[in-house]
Amino acid sequence: MSETASMKKLNMIEAINDALDVMMARDSNIVVMGEDVGYFGGVFRATAGLQKKYGRTRVFDTPISECGIIGVAVGMGAYGLRPVPEIQFADYIYPGLDQLVSEAARLRYRSAGEFTAPITVRSPFGGGIFGGQTHSQSPEALFTHVSGIKTVIPATPHDAKGLLIAAIEDNDPVIFFEPKRIYNGPFNGYYDKPVEPWSRHKDGAVPEGYYRIPLGKARVVREGEAMTVLAYGTMVHVAEAVLAEKGVDAEIIDLRTLVPLDIETIKASIEKTGKCMIVHEATRTGGFGAELSALVQERCFYHLEAPIERVTGFDTPYPHSLEWAYFPGPVRIGEAVDRLLKA
Amino acid sequence: MSETASMKKLNMIEAINDALDVMMARDSNIVVMGEDVGYFGGVFRATAGLQKKYGRTRVFDTPISECGIIGVAVGMGAYGLRPVPEIQFADYIYPGLDQLVSEAARLRYRSAGEFTAPITVRSPFGGGIFGGQTHSQSPEALFTHVSGIKTVIPATPHDAKGLLIAAIEDNDPVIFFEPKRIYNGPFNGYYDKPVEPWSRHKDGAVPEGYYRIPLGKARVVREGEAMTVLAYGTMVHVAEAVLAEKGVDAEIIDLRTLVPLDIETIKASIEKTGKCMIVHEATRTGGFGAELSALVQERCFYHLEAPIERVTGFDTPYPHSLEWAYFPGPVRIGEAVDRLLKA
Amino acid sequence: MNEASRSNLPPLQLHVPEPKFRPGDAVDYSHLVIPAAGAQARPDESCGASETHPLCLDLVRVLGEDHRAVGPWDPKLDPESLRRMLRLMALTRAFDDRMYRGQRQGKTSFYMKCTGEEATSIAPAMALASDDMVFPSYRQQGILIARGYPMVDMINQIYSNKADKLKGRQLPIMYSAREASFFSISGNLATQYPQAVGWAMASAIKGDTRIAAAWLGEGSTAEGDFHSAMTFAAVYNAPVVFNVVNNQWAISSFSGFAGAERTTFAARAIGYGIAGLRVDGNDPLAVYAATRWAANRARANGGPTLIEHFTYRAEGHSTSDDPGQYRSVQERTEWPLGDPIARLAAHLEALGEWTPEAHAAMDLELAEQVKAAAKAAEANGVLGHGLHHPFRTLFEDVFEELPWHLKEQSEQAIRERRIKWPEWKEEDS
Amino acid sequence: MNEASRSNLPPLQLHVPEPKFRPGDAVDYSHLVIPAAGAQARPDESCGASETHPLCLDLVRVLGEDHRAVGPWDPKLDPESLRRMLRLMALTRAFDDRMYRGQRQGKTSFYMKCTGEEATSIAPAMALASDDMVFPSYRQQGILIARGYPMVDMINQIYSNKADKLKGRQLPIMYSAREASFFSISGNLATQYPQAVGWAMASAIKGDTRIAAAWLGEGSTAEGDFHSAMTFAAVYNAPVVFNVVNNQWAISSFSGFAGAERTTFAARAIGYGIAGLRVDGNDPLAVYAATRWAANRARANGGPTLIEHFTYRAEGHSTSDDPGQYRSVQERTEWPLGDPIARLAAHLEALGEWTPEAHAAMDLELAEQVKAAAKAAEANGVLGHGLHHPFRTLFEDVFEELPWHLKEQSEQAIRERRIKWPEWKEEDS
Ligand SMILES: Cc1ncc(C[n+]2csc(CCOP(=O)(O)OP(=O)(O)O)c2C)c(N)n1
Ligand SMILES: Cc1ncc(C[n+]2csc(CCOP(=O)(O)OP(=O)(O)O)c2C)c(N)n1
Ligand SMILES: [Mg+2]
Ligand SMILES: [Mg+2]
Q1: Which segments constitute the Transketolase-like pyrimidine-binding domain (chains A, B) (predicted)?
Q2: What is the model's pLDDT at position D336?
Q3: Cα B125 vs. chain centroid, distance in angstroms?
Q4: CA of C323 to the centre of ligand 3 (A)
Q5: Chain D residues inside the 8 Å CB shell of C221
Q6: Both B197 and B241 in a single domain?
């Protein structure tokens, strides 16, 4: 990552758009496709302007078939292209799951490397936008359980661009979940207060041109001694705000990549702090928090001074009117922090 | 469960067939369908004889479309039937995942109880039969993460019948995974030795007629003090054999139902033993073992004397020739046991 | 073929569909072949499926240029029924207008209109038996209105308020109304199609007489669920009526991205060997007649029919988009098949059964009716203003009974609420 | 419809398909309409798709009762090519026979023959360019044989031995052969169909001249992937040839459960508005001609073609089933379209280019060839006898590079091996 490059202020959508633009200019094998991504530029505008710039055979709308979108992407990857399909909402990825899980994720293995699926599936995920149960889900744990696929989730425009570039260059299939709640600005969990735009946040400064953030490397958002907080996406900011408000000297780790996980950074932190809180928006049971919890207790058992806390969404669909009761917001996080401090 | 009923010796396939037979005779709303389940009686013969007995409109073959099978089952459930679809192998459930996850599991919630999906999806799962990567998978963790669906896995003919009856009677969608490795006899993990048939095993004795084993209740296979072993399906027997061989006084719990989980039984056991080993065949990362580990450390932290051990399949597809290297067999389990004993 | 000869071959080209008109373009519909009303044969309802196949490439039309009903598909409805049809379509439009404004005023998060497509739900609802089960997409609010479902309940759902029968759980307009034989709407496109087949199969297994009908948009025909539904319906001869509402747009993507450049959507029926009809979706009489034909056929064990309703989405996809960004505004004004309400009104006028004055009075009355319903619903709260279902309801209906983990989580939610609003009492909400 | 009138309605009935013959039944194929060879028109390769649609309900045939090639579809192959075709089909059958026995002898876990269907892979492989990419199902071993892929490598894969290029990871016969432009076979039915479309789209995006061809069984057409593939191919006019091998059986389920009672599988093409052909799949010349037609069309940017090969699965689904349990054994012997090898041999004889003696000699020679290959492969090991790929390879190729958790697991696997076999040395395997 070249921090010496000149910087510009971008929100997360713009950063993603910029990453696609930079990469499409560098590599003519990159194609972008998905429902409404072409002429219109995507329902969240992440692909705006790309069709005009790179033409209709490199940026195009698709039929409404997630199975088809992933399936043709696998075939294009086998040909030698690097498709970057968009799934309009993570909630709609299930019809394409077989092509992702049984095909993209398995192709290198089953062909002993003869064929690969170097595809990056972008999809907005997470709630907090009154999208109801089919525009709010966080299905990352369905992917982290599948061998052969990498799961990446950025928490800032800066990381979104650098990680997306790395994902596109990666020769394995990557699922790239974009926390749509923070497309426009980091969300601190206080839904009744105005949101700060990315232009006023340090991580809204994005280098021009090409840079990569390696997959599998976490970001230490803040160093601290009192406890370790593991989070990704939107929840990084919510946790950060709660801990700042409470004045807790926590070490906050933004995982960035769930698989492969940066176990070293996690381990070092917990050996230092002895306490661990995991935060995610997905439903609790079998969420990625369970894996994090299991790993931490396996590797840091004798350092742990208190039970690991999982702060998560509830085991219900994401409701419409009671969305803030579902969301793992400041109160839920705050209680867990208090428990850890007391332990 | 009426243990006074007269008993017969059945293997697991026969027990499942018997459960279907008993239920179809009792309730004319039950229909059985799936690829090859009709005239032929299923590739594993689980539905043999049922079409002849109950007719072609209650037991029938279907097109090869898992999406269609689950989708029409949801519609039949909404009408008032109780469909029991079969997915030929768990590895082929992905094309039907959207209908399971977004529809069956959500229907009661999103319609506030107006419509429900009282369907039981049966599917053989697990490896150990040289089925290669698409006839060996254990995808239970994809379901345990989804709110609104119950996950049931029997480990004996006796339980298979009682649990399947309970699942069919349940008004929520149930995924019923059948460990195909132990269809014919309990497998102790020593693949190079002959398999004991169910007819020689105590749990091969199955009551005649109707009985239920409630969902959400685990079975204590063996009481013990040295450690708690949490397992389900095939792995119950493998763990049992290894511990017996090592002469370890372990408490072995067959979970039977993963969601809802019998947390009380688990908690009580670990408070007694202070040590916990979790065994499953599915790939490790994000497997159901992660959830079990997280729950145990959350609820029994101050009782734990050693790190919880997860003994699992590897994070690779299920290979063909090296299937026994993938399988969490006696050596892998034995090492974990030794670590726990030493701790 | 010889490798060496390759160099003589032209390069392959990817065809990417592009609609005829984009923002700013002048619209010219002269390429559209619109057959004359009344010119389409009407095979017997018990005919072989292949007899309908020519109709899959044609367009069943009843209302002519002169606003008269003509030809074998004329359902010969009495003026009473026609006025009822007109009123229901107008009521649907009035409802849409008010709810759209409600969303713009911040009373809810989302809304979707069906403007211009009212005939495709009102006419089928009238042609089906009232207890035939319908599996709609999100654009068939007209069915609920036609079936007399209380409008206040619809608005309670849209406002996600404390009287919402769906307990505020679903996105606005994702109704469920068992009492109206109206299946719970899913946010996931096309999933209702195989479900409708399953329901119809169940009805047939039970020897019932009720049939099922399903709707989806032309864009959604690309989903695998569509294919599953067609296959199962064909295999088991399920008593189901499939409606494809071809309003030519799927959010910003025109119907070419669902395959419309190649053939009609009704033609899919030919591929499965089932009956198919293609109708002028803005001609309520044609829609009614086609539905009745298909329903009678299904009820007589004649099997499934696929009906393509050729119509036009006159407004945006939803409150979340602005169609001016991707299509010419002239498309709507130039659309040669007109507006279903205007066409039916003109027909009634031609029959001497309606006047512009009556129409204006009806519109006023309906607007008042909707306004009153909206006011009544508002008394139960609007989204985000505290009048929602009690917190514990968040955990109900995940399962029939609350398992321990949801009980714990429910207590957690209540505790969080107390922490945030110490003055809050559980009874309040 | 009036609720009250319901009581007069007949109950609905579920139709459940049932094949004409079950075990023990005498077989009578007189219901099958088999058109005369040579009677089918051959439209120009650049024709509109709809010109092919009558052929979707017909059957393209070249070899007549008199074993002569007739009509516009006669590909006019020279005797040399015909003999090559015959030999490749016979080699495929010899291969199947030996591998089937190998499985029965415990040398591997599983095998699948393509007996009776050899024409549907050999003839297309000859009609396509050798670098056109094929996306087969598990029953197109003939393509590898036709493309000269080393038979020993095929058997190494089947035996999952230490020389298996797929490192013992895949179930037998799930080949992958990039050098032969043969895509990795998936155990999940129909997934290769949209992948073939994606490959073809990529070829078109790049201005390449290579096209794609995909195969699946008639039963697999029910999967959603089939529909996705057809839709995408139709939308983007992808240069792809879709083959549906209608061998009338899917494990124990006859083609009626995929919709065959209603129409042909080729008719699906009509539903999408793409070109379609239905051919006698046991007539190698018809298959060759149809493939060449479709390939030429695709290569000239004429878009996709769906070809249904009407054939018969002469043996069991795989080594795991016994077809005598669900169908009449007479079906095979009575099958009116005969056997592709016998028919081509008879044609060559009719041309004076072949003799029964030559055929017998060829069969002997091919059996020897396969035997030699099998012996060579066996030297590398058979399943379950220790000669497999090294343990660490279990963890390779999950990702391009081994992440830490797979490194740890790899070490675990090696440790387990040492514990179990203390005398084992890592170099051994
Ligand atoms: C499985 C799935 N994929 C994508 C979406 C997002 N989406 C919602 S509506 C829509 C367009 C549907 O168009 P069409 O079927 O033509 O229906 P119309 O809106 O025109 O009535 C899309 C892509 C979704 N809801 N579900
Ligand atoms: C997604 C999926 N569902 C089910 C299966 C199990 N299965 C394997 S082969 C087969 C039958 C396929 O029949 P058909 O498509 O006609 O091909 P054929 O075997 O006749 O060549 C089935 C059901 C599978 N492999 N994948
Ligand atoms: Mg539309
Ligand atoms: Mg077949």
Answers
A1: 10-185
A2: 95
A3: 8
A4: 13
A5: 231
A6: no
The residues spanned by each domain of chain C are 49-382, 390-428
Residue with tokens 């209680």: A335
Residues 6+ apart with CB under 8 A from C260: C218, C246, C248, C254
Asked whether C107 and C326 are in contact (CB, 8 A), the reply is no
CB of residue D312 inside a 6 A radius of ligand 2:
no
Q: Within this chain, do residues B234 and B197 fall inside the same structural domain, yes or no? A: no
pLDDT digits 0-9 by tens, C155-175: 999 999 999 999 999 999 999
Closest to D231 in 3D by CA, of C190, C10, C29, C238: C190
Neighbours of D70 (CB within 10 A): 16
Regarding the domain delimited by D49-382, which CATH topology (the fold level of the hierarchy) does it fall under? Rossmann fold (3.40.50)
User: Cα angle at B5 between B150 and B14, to 5 degrees?
Assistant: 55
User: pLDDT category, C34, cuts 50, 70, 90?
Assistant: very high
Q: Across the strands, what pairs with B227?
A: B250
Domain boundary among A177, A205, A233: A205
Calpha distance B289→C163 (Å, rounded): 42
The two three-digit tokens of residue A315, written as one number = 């085991």
Cα of C252 to ligand 3 centre, how many Å? Answer: 10
pLDDT tens-digit map of C263-295: 999 999 999 999 999 999 999 999 999 999 999
Note the pLDDT tens digit of each residue in C373-421: 999 999 999 998 888 888 899 999 999 999 999 999 999 999 999 999 8
* Cis peptide preceding A260, ω within 30 of 0: yes
B324: left (phi over 0), alpha (psi -120 to 50) or beta: alpha
Q: What Cα–Cα distance (Å) separates residue C72 from each residue in C37, C41, D32?
A: 10, 7, 36
Which candidate, C299, C178, C328, C325, places its Cα nearest to that of C239?
C299
ipTM: 0.98
Question: B83: helix, coil or strand?
Answer: strand
Q: φ and ψ at C419, to 5 degrees?
A: -65, -40
- Shortest distance between the Cα of A193 and any Cα of chain C, in A, equals 14
On whether any CB of chain A is under 8 Å from the CB of C416, the answer is: yes
Provide the residue range defining the domain that includes B146: 7-189+192-205
Tell me: do A291 and A327 sit in the same domain.
Answer: yes
- Domain membership of residue A1 (yes or no) is no
Q: Output phi, psi for B122, to 5 deg.
A: -90, 140
Q: How many angstroms does the Cα of residue D249 sit away from the middle of ligand 2?
A: 10
Distance from CA of B242 to the nearest CA of C (A): 32
pLDDT digits (tens, 9 = 90+) for D368-385: 999 999 999 999 999 988
CB contact under 8 A, B94 and A106: no
Asked whether C323 lines ligand 1 (CB < 6 A), one says no
Total structural domains in chain A? 2
| pLDDT average, residue stretch D203-212 | 98
Q: Within its chain, how far is the Cα of D297 from the centroid?
A: 22
Give me the torsion for CA of C168, C174, C176, C177, rounded to 10°: 110
Give the side-chain half-sphere CA count within 13 A for D214.
34
Q: Residue with the nearest Cα to atom 21 of ligand 1? A: C217
Give yes or no: D326 in active site: yes
How does pLDDT run across C50-91, given as a tens digit for each residue? 999 999 999 999 999 999 999 999 999 999 999 999 999 999
> How many whole angstroms separate alpha carbon A108 and alpha carbon C228?
30
Based on the residue annotation, tell me whether C29 is a catalytic residue of this protein: no
Distance CA C415, CA D127 (A): 72
CA dist A330 and A237 (Å) reads 11
Nearest one of A259, A267, A293 to A278, comparing CA atoms: A293
User: Tokens 């309730």, residue?
Assistant: B27
| B172 shares its domain with B260 | no
CA C288/CA C118 separation, integer angstroms: 12
CA angle B304, B310, B314 (to 5 degrees): 165
Q: pTM of this prediction?
A: 0.98
